[in-house]
């Protein structure tokens, strides 16, 4: 999917019109980002501030995890949030939640960045960071409820599913690299990634 | 997942995790375009993958907030697709017509769309909410100025701009169709540099737009270039038309 080419019809409100529509409430927690994105698609600067407040922390979090460099992660977060502003009209709630849309942009950008950085370093270093990844992922975390829930669901995966999904998502490795790191055939890693995500989806009770 | 080779089918997980090569990403995206069941599956897996990320949220330094928001407001947005093409699809292109007449026809199309709005036509977004169709706000601005120019590769382009609204409306017709891998992209080009102003969708009859362009400032010209299908952050080719 080219995350981009499906777009709701809409138009930008003028500055004058913006003041008129005030009645967007603070009701319902989860659809809020979707609503805000629809407003951002029309150039609503105030709605964009709301989107930033909801999503910048997620974007920075995933960038930090994948890049492991705080300064680079901040750069990527700012780039992604700019992309969210630019591409808001491409967000289609029929295809998924606003959260998934933003996180898809964020993860892809972080992964592209880490791969271009890695292309300058050697293989041994890559193997080393992979091990760090794995340790980090399985270590006990006790922060938010969301974290605990995801951690619990990750723990319900088989070891190979969990390693495959984690190395890919948090480590930014391709399935071919994961296969090499784990000494498993590439075809196996591909199916474990899919099975792992399906299990994760069921465990998290992902709703569309 | 039904269509395509079975190898692609098993790539769904790796694709959602961005664990594929650029080449595989492109092949899988093409596969998705023709497979509704696959899109549904990808959608669900994406929600799960997103949770892996949101679970890792960290608080950004407060000073990043203002600089990011300010940068966004200086940046043009991808234009929304406008649902008003029924007003303009029946216009025929006569081969012998002069450019001036074509420009007039395109301008008439803009005005026809605006007239639909004046008559109370509103376009609902996907949540079913009614939105004002702000092309009319630009066209009816007291300081609106219309300029037209031939497109170097064929066709005519028109911009109606309002300095007061900091907005413009771009419309073109007779633009040559592009291969699937390419898109027309609009730009604001001026003292503030080059800013993307959205991809331009060509309708089947060669009409394009009306596309709203926001964030216009004094001295800005509107440019159109041919870019990769997903658009570019900076123009990668010479403009086929510049108006302003």
Layout of secondary structure:
The complex is a heterodimer of chains A (208) and B (244).
Chain A: H1 15-18, H2 31-40, H3 45-67, H4 70-87, H5 98-118, H6 123-138, H7 145-155, H8 159-169, H9 175-182, H10 186-204
Chain B: H1 6-9, H2 12-16, H3 22-33, H4 36-54, H5 62-73, H6 99-118, E1 123-124, E2 130-131, H7 135-139, E3 145-150, E4 156-162, E5 167-173, E6 182-190, E7 193-200, E8 208-214, E9 221-228, E10 241-243
Antiparallel strand pairs in B: 1-2, 3-4, 4-5, 5-8, 6-7, 6-9, 9-10
Topology of chain A as a string of helices (H) and strands (E): HHHHHHHHHH
Percent strand of chain A equals: under 5%
Poorly predicted spans of chain B: 82-99, 114-133
Helix amount of chain B, in percent? 25-40%
Assembly state of the chains shown? heterodimer
- Counting helices, strands and paired strands, the structural category of chain B is alpha+beta
SS element count, helices of chain B: 7
What is the N-to-C order of secondary-structure elements of chain B (H for helix, E for strand)?
HHHHHHEEHEEEEEEEE
In short:
The complex is a heterodimer of chains A (208) and B (244). Chain A is mostly helical and 208 residues long.
What does this structure look like?
The complex is a heterodimer of chains A (208) and B (244). Chain A has 208 residues and is mainly alpha-helical. Chain A is built from ten helices and no strands. Chain A has helices at residues 15-18, 31-40, 45-67, 70-87, 98-118, 123-138, 145-155, 159-169, 175-182, 186-204. In chain A, 49% of the residues are buried. By secondary structure, chain B is an alpha+beta fold. Helices cover 32% and strands 24% of the residues of chain B. In chain B, strand 1 and strand 2 (130-131) form a beta hairpin. Chain B is globular. The termini of chain B are far apart. The relative contact order of chain B is 0.12. The model of chain B is unreliable at 82-99 and 114-133 (pLDDT under 50). The chains are: A mainly alpha (208), B alpha+beta (244). Chains A and B meet through helix 3, helix 4, helix 5, helix 7 and helix 8 of A and helix 2, helix 3, helix 4, helix 5 and strand 1 of B.
């Amino acid at each position: 999917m080219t995350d981009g080419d499906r777009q709701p019809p809409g138009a930008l409100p003028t500055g004058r019109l913006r003041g008129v529509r005030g009645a967007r409430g603070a009701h319902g927690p989860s659809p809020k980002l979707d609503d805000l994105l629809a407003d951002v698609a029309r150039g609503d600067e105030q709605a964009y501030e709301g989107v930033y407040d909801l999503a910048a922390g997620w974007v920075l979090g995933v960038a930090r995890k994948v890049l492991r460099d705080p300064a680079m992660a901040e750069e990527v977060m700012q780039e992604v949030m700019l992309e969210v502003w630019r591409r808001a009209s491409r967000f289609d709630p029929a295809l998924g939640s606003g959260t998934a849309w933003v996180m898809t942009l964020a993860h892809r950008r972080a992964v592209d960045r880490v791969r271009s950085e890695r292309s300058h370093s050697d293989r041994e270093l890559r193997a080393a960071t992979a091990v760090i990844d794995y340790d980090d992922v399985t270590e006990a975390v006790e922060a938010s409820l969301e974290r605990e829930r995801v951690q619990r669901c990750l723990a319900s995966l088989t070891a190979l599913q969990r390693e495959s999904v984690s190395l890919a998502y948090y480590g930014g490795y391709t399935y071919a690299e994961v296969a090499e790191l784990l000494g498993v055939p590439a075809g196996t890693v591909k199916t474990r990634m899919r099975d792992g995500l399906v299990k994760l989806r069921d465990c998290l009770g992902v709703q569309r | 997942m039904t269509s395509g080779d079975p190898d692609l089918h098993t790539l769904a997980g790796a694709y959602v995790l961005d664990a594929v090569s650029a080449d595989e990403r492109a092949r899988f995206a093409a596969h998705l375009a023709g497979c509704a069941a696959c899109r549904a599956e990808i959608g669900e897996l994406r929600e799960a993958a997103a949770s892996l990320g949101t679970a890792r949220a960290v608080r950004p330094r407060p000073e990043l907030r203002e600089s990011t928001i300010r940068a966004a407001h200086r940046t043009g947005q991808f234009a929304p697709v406008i649902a008003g093409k029924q007003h303009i699809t029946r216009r025929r292109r006569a081969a012998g017509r002069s450019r001036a007449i074509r420009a007039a026809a395109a301008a008439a199309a803009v005005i026809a769309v605006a007239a639909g709005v004046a008559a109370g036509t509103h376009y609902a977004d996907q949540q079913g909410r009614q939105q004002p169709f702000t092309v009319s706000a630009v066209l009816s601005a007291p300081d609106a100025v219309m300029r037209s120019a031939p497109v170097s590769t064929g066709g005519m382009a028109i911009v109606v701009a309002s300095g007061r609204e900091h907005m413009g409306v771009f419309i073109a017709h007779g633009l040559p169709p592009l291969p699937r891998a390419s898109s027309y992209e609009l730009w604001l080009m001026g003292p503030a540099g080059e800013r993307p102003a959205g991809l331009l969708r060509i309708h089947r009859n060669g009409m394009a737009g009306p596309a709203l362009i926001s964030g216009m400032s004094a001295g800005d010209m509107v440019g159109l270039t041919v870019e990769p299908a997903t658009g570019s952050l900076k123009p990668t080719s010479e403009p086929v038309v510049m108006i302003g």
